[in-house]
Amino acid sequence: MDETVIRRLIDASGCSAFMAFGADNFRYLTGATLPFAENYPERKAAAIIPAEGDTCAVVTPVDWLQAVKDQGWMEATVAYDENEGPHPTAFVKTLAKTLVGMGLDKGKIGYDAERASAGLVEAVKATTKAKLIPVDNVLSEARSVKGSAEVALIEKSCEFADRGIIHALNHLEGTLWGLGYTVPEYAERIRVHAFESGASGVGHMAVTVGDDTRLEYAPHRGDIDEGLLIRNDITSHSMGYWCSVSRMAFTGYAPPEVVDAYDENQVLKQVAECLLKPGARCDKVYVKVVSEAEKLGAKLHGSIIGHGVGCSHFEAPYLVAGYPLELKMGNVIALGVATLGPRREIIVDRDVYEITHEGARKLSWYRRWDRIYEVTGFRAVH
Amino acid sequence: MELYSKIVDAVQSSTFDAVVVTGADNFVYMAGAVIPFLPLYPDSPVIVVWPRRGDPTVIAPEEWEETIVTLSSIKKIRTYSGGVDAFTRAVADVLKAKKGARIGVDLLRVSEATLNKLKKLLPEMEWVSCDGFIRELRAVKTEEELGLLEDAAYRVDHGIFGTQHHVLITSTRSEMSLGEEVRVHCLERGLDVIGAHSVSQGASGTNASKFWPRAPYYGIGHEKKLKEGEYVRIEARYSLDGYWGTGSRLMTQGYTSAEQRKAYGHIVAVREAALSAMKPGAKCSEVYKAMKAAAKELDAKLVEGLALGHGIGVADVEAPYLSAKDDTKLCPGMVLVIRPVVEGPKGELLWSSDTVVIEEDGPRVVGWYKDWREPYVANYTL
Questions:
Q1: Other C-beta atoms within 10 Å of B13: how many?
Q2: Does A380 fall in a domain?
Q3: Which CATH number fits domain B143-377: 2.70.98.10, 3.40.50.2300, 3.90.230.10, 3.30.43.10?
Q4: Which of A185, A341, B88, B377 has its CA 20 to 30 A from that of B15?
Q5: What is the arithmetic mean of pLDDT over B254-272?
Q6: B276-306 as b/e, with b when 16 or more CB fall inside 10 Å?
Q7: A183-197 vs A148-172: helix axis angle to the nearest 10?
């Protein structure tokens, strides 16, 4: 993210600095992706960006610091000593010292209250005279409008994710009648191929097969046999910019009722896709899809059909009832209308689009998925 | 059901009228639902409301209902559509009958913004921290949990060893393929490769001087090939039915040099010091001091700023911590990972993690597939 834009945001918020605790906001403000920070709630990092002056700073555990520097962070880096107290004391002590050193021990500091735990904020407040102001909306709004470099990274991440899925599906060809793939092995092939294609990380990955496609996630167990529906959900990133794609496949020729269900899903997705334009209200896009689903007699699963992607794989804006914001140029939306198949299977074909002045530009273009992928190939041994 | 009964008893004998947990790790523990993607969806919160009397309730996004009900030991679920506002309204609705109640909440997990919304909706409630309560509950494992953790530790060690067995000096491989082979070997041993942070990594030579070489490609690895004479650090973290195994083992590319042996000896000595100190009743901080003293006596270059070990369970890093200020008393049923990091002869960061179960008569190292008083020495040829 452009530092001058961030500083303008800070200034406009009337704050002397922004302090981000969430891994996604940290990425947005610093350009550095932390090593799985979301999974380590008792290990903390903060990015501190003042409205003016030369010095920004990050505070992290000892073993994350180098990773931040290696991603191009040229400003101050401070590691906290985990032995200075239990969580969050050790982190907060160092953070407080850093704020004082930056001259930020008074005035107003904007922070991400939706990412910082209540206990952490309480501890920070006890150590500083600065007034902490939640600025989640400012950060969320800024993050939701992407620059061209950000869009380019998301576009790459879409390609990597789609390659991961299609290459894994290609591996399935000719394996259904003998010693084939297990579900965990197949899922692993997706991840490996995404990495081999260039992805810098995989977040949520769920491969559901057969009856398990009724669920959003099921433990990866069992074999992939003939005659089964497969849903491949993957979120992955390219240098910290995320995509979210889902693809459907069938082992063998899909029966007519599955093909029909998939076609129905595609119709609803196209309805939504046509509405993705600057000025379209997010809730109205959702309502339109609901009404078209009723007309078709299709059953929707869940209550959200799309969301933003960027420094997180799930962020604003949201295509959901009760979310009245209008789409803007530069929004990037993962659109996936989830419908129920003949046996209540969750069917989703999730693509990613950039909102441009002309409408929705598909970023996940690597392959067309307008027909369900059928694993019907054979294996030549020679 | 052993864990479920334990939680029922603990909540009933607590000072809370209800315990509510929102952290992904606490949720997985209380709900008994292994759902690896929760940490990555902070804007789609989930919660367990566990009253002192009556059945617990899960509150989750509508689209996750069937998944959570299927995977959880809690069968009562309330869903919401939309973001955090809808979530807090659903929570308030479940709790509203408990006017004036004392609600224990995981303050070190719940976002400040969410808690503030809950306080506004339920002004008569007394919101107090239950972090200590959950921490203690999680720290002492049931027999079933102990079985899973021991099994996971063994399988991870076996997975790493299986990979090392393939490494030859004369026909070497890259760090990337090493990491991938660890993952495949762990998969083959039945471990779950789920969760964004469920990764393996191989780091050799100068790359081993960083905790995370090639950021942000965490756990993907470099193209760098292993060279004769190098120290190679191999790490893996995978789970088994939601319980984690984390391992790191060292290998020398060819016969271990005197300098390499000396550094490894430091790791062994610090481990031995930990094991001597890890008696039931000993404080974690005392174990830490014993480990530091052993390192000092040998003039070992212990990396400063990190805890020297941690608990493991539904998270791969959790309380208690072998750190200077953690005064948790060890007791039977706790499972910890000893993880001192020492600098090697060429600045490599070396560690060899060991999982330890605290029993009545002292600590028991679990999971060793090989005697790790020596590093693995890669073979020259087949």
A1: 8
A2: no
A3: 3.90.230.10
A4: B88
A5: 97
A6: ebbebebebbbbbbbbbebbeebebbbbebb
A7: 140
Please count the other Cβ atoms lying within 10 Å of the Cβ belonging to residue B196.
Answer: 23
Is A211 in the B-facing interface, judged by CB distances under 8 Å? no
| Dihedral of the alpha carbons of A203, B77, B108, B89, in degrees to the nearest 10 | 110
Amino acid at B1: M
Q: Is A203 on the interface with B (CB under 8 A)?
A: yes
Give the distance from residue B164's alpha carbon to the nearest chain A alpha carbon, in angstroms: 20
- CA-based radius of gyration for chain A: 23
Dist CA A191 CA A203 (whole Å): 10
Quick one: A185 and A312 in the same domain?
Answer: yes
The pLDDT score that the predictor gives to residue A4 is 81
Q: Give the neighbor-by-neighbor strand order of the sheet with A241-251.
A: A201-209, A229-238, A241-251, A373-375
Q: Is A89 on the interface with B (CB under 8 A)?
A: yes
**Distance linking the first and last C-alpha atoms of chain B:** 49
**Are A223 and A296 part of one and the same domain?**
yes
Task: Report pLDDT for A381.
Answer: 67
Q: Which structural domain range is residue A62 located in?
A: 3-144
Of the candidates A144, A163, A195, which is a domain's last residue?
A: A144
Mean pLDDT for B146-170 is: 95
Interface contact A113-B217, CB threshold 8 A: no
Burial class (CB in 10 A: 0-12, 13-18, 19+), B147: middle
CATH number of the domain residue A16 falls in: 3.40.350.10
Is residue A235 assigned to a domain? yes
Specify the CATH number of the domain B2-138. 3.40.350.10
Which CATH number fits the domain that encloses residue A228?
3.90.230.10
* Cα A334 to Cα B54: distance, rounded to the nearest angstrom: 40
Whether residue A198 is found in the same domain as residue A339: yes
Residues A290, A342 within the same domain: yes
Most B-contacting residue of A30, A111, A114, A345 (CB-CB within 10 A), to test interface: A114
Residues of B in contact with A63 (CB under 8 A): 211-212, 306
User: pLDDT grade, residue A380 (50/70/90)?
Assistant: confident
Distance CA B18, CA B98 (A): 9
Residue after which a domain boundary falls, among A125, A144, A163: A144
Q: What is the mean pLDDT of residues A84-101?
A: 96
What's this model's pTM, rounded to 2 decimal places?
0.97
- Is residue B131 very low, low, confident or very high in pLDDT (cuts 50, 70, 90)? very high
A169 and A112 both lie in a single domain? no
User: What sections of chain B are H helices per DSSP?
Assistant: 2-12, 24-31, 65-71, 84-95, 112-121, 131-139, 143-166, 175-188, 258-277, 284-298
Q: Is the pLDDT of residue A179 over 90?
A: no
How far apart are alpha carbons A299 and A281 in whole angstroms? 23
Residue A8 has pLDDT above 70, yes or no: yes
- For residues A114 and A221, state if they share a domain: no
